[in-house]
TrEMBL record:
Domain PAS: 37-80
Classification via InterPro entries: AAA+_ATPase, AAA_lid_NorR, Homeodomain-like_sf, HTH_Fis, P-loop_NTPase, PAS, PAS-like_dom_sf, PAS_4
Gene3D superfamilies attached to this UniProt entry: 1.10.8.60, Homeodomain-like, P-loop containing nucleotide triphosphate hydrolases, PAS domain
Molecular function per GO: ATP binding; sequence-specific DNA binding
Pfam (any one): HTH_8
GO BP annotation list: regulation of DNA-templated transcription
Species of the source: Pandoraea horticolens
Protein name as catalogued: Sigma-54 dependent transcription regulator
Keyword field: ATP-binding, DNA-binding, Nucleotide-binding, Transcription, Transcription regulation
Amino acid sequence: METGGNFNMYEDEKPDPIALGEQRGLLSDYAFVRKQAMQSLFETLDTSSEGTVVVDSDARIVWINRSYAERFGFTNPEAVIGLDCEVVIPNSLMREVVTTGRPILLDILETGQEPLVVTRLPIKDSHGKTVGAVGFALFDELKVLTPMFSTYSRLQSELLATRQSLAQARRAKYSFSSFVGTSAASLETKRLGRRAAQLDSPVLLLGETGTGKELLAHAIHGASPRADKPLVSVNVAAIPDALLEVEFFGAAAGAYTGADRKGRTGKFELAQGGTLFLDEIGDMPLPLQGKLLRALQEREFEPIGSNRVVQTDVRIIAATSADLPALVAQGRFRADLYYRLNVLMIRVPPLRDRPSDIEAMSYAILDRLSSQRDAGHLELDEGAIKRLMAYHWPGNVRELQNTLERVALLSESERIDALALARFIDDGRGSTSEAGAQNVAKVADVTEAMPTEPVVEWKRYDDAMKAFERQFLTESLRAAGGRVSEAAARLGMGRATLYKKMTLLGIDLLAPE
C-alpha cells in the first residue's frame, strides 16, 4: 500500500522510526517521539538532578554519576560498579523496584545529610521483563517541593515531640526509694518488689486502698529489664463494663456503632514489650475475665470486629483492694484467672501496721508540698507526731497526704503542734485506735527512758491562748457531764457557738447528750 510521501509501507513491514522521523523532519510519529522523549528526559534529569544511579536485575550498580557517588563518600564512581545498591546508598529502595517491577515515583530518601526527594523507575526489555532500574535524586532544583519539605519537617518535629511525650507519660514515675519507710513491714515489701522486678511472671498486689500499690507497680517496672518500654495503666473500676473490652484489646474500624473510623488501639498493644498495670482487677466483669485469661496464656488476642491475631509480649502487674479469694468463692472472680495472676503475691501493709514510718513519711509529704507551693518548711512537734501515730488511718497514705496538705494550706504557723493538727484528723474527731494508743505508749516509754535536759518551750501568744481555751472548755464540759447545752448555759454562750469552738479546738465530746 502506498502512502503520500517518498516511501512505501506494507502491512508486514515496519520502517525504522528514527529514519521515518528524519525523513519527515517532524515529531509526528509516536515511536520516534517516545524514544526521543525518553532520551531527552534521562539527559535532562541526569543533568539537573543531584544524582543518577542505574542498577541491574540483581540491584547491583551498573552506572552512577560522579556527583551522586561523591554524596555517599566515593570519589571514583567506577569503584562502586558491581556493588549492591544498599552498600553505596543506605535506605535505597531500588531493589524493591527491580523485584516488583513497579515504579516509586516520589519518595523521600533519608541520608546522613539533608533528605533527598527521589524517583525510581524500572527498566524493562521489549518483552516487558524488568532488567534493571534507574533512580534520580531530585533535590533543590525542584523549587515547588519547598512547601512539601516544610510540611515534612514540621510533621517530623511534631512526631518526635509526640513520641517523647508519650514515652515520658508511659514511663515509671516512682522508684523503690519513693516507698518511704524503714519498718520491718516496709523493708519486706520492698524486698519482694525488687525480687519481682527481676522476674517476668505476673505480680498480684493486695492491700487496702491508699497503701501505695500503684507506686509499687511503677517501682517494679522501673527496676525491671522492661524499664525502657511502656508502662500502661488501666483502672478497671473507673471504666464502664461496656467499654472495657475495647479498652483492653482495641477495635477494628467500624466494628460497632460509634466506633472510630480508623479503629482503636487497645492497651495490650500500647504496652507491647512493657508492663500492663491492671488496677482494681477485682472489679472486672466475668465475661471479660475469660478473654483476659486467654490473652495471658496464649499471648495473643483478636481486636473487636477483626480477624487479625495480635501477638503480645506484655508483663502483667495486677492490684486490688478486694478480697479475691472471697470473690472466687462467691463465683464473682474466675479461679483460673486468680491462679494465673497469683504467681508472685505481695501484700502491701496498711499504714497502721507500720507506725514507725509515719514520721519520715509525713516529712517527705511536707517537703514535697513546700516545694510545690514554694513556701517555707513546715515542722511537726513531738505532740503532733504522737497524734499522727495514734490515729488508725483507714485511708492509709492517701489520707495522711490529704490531712497534711490541708494542714499546710490552713496552718498559720510553720511549726505544727498536736492542737493545730487535731482539727484536721478524721474531720476533727481525731479518734485513735487501740493499736495507735499502744504505739504512742511505746514511744513515750522510750522517750522517758532517755536522759533529758531542761528545755524551755516557748509558745506564741495565740497558741498559748488556744491551749488555755481548750483546757477551760474541756473542764467545763466534764463538769457538765458532757452535756453541751448545759455547759453552754453555764458559760453564758450559745450552744452553736460552743460547738463551733469545740470543732476549731479539736475537743471531743466526753459523752453523748
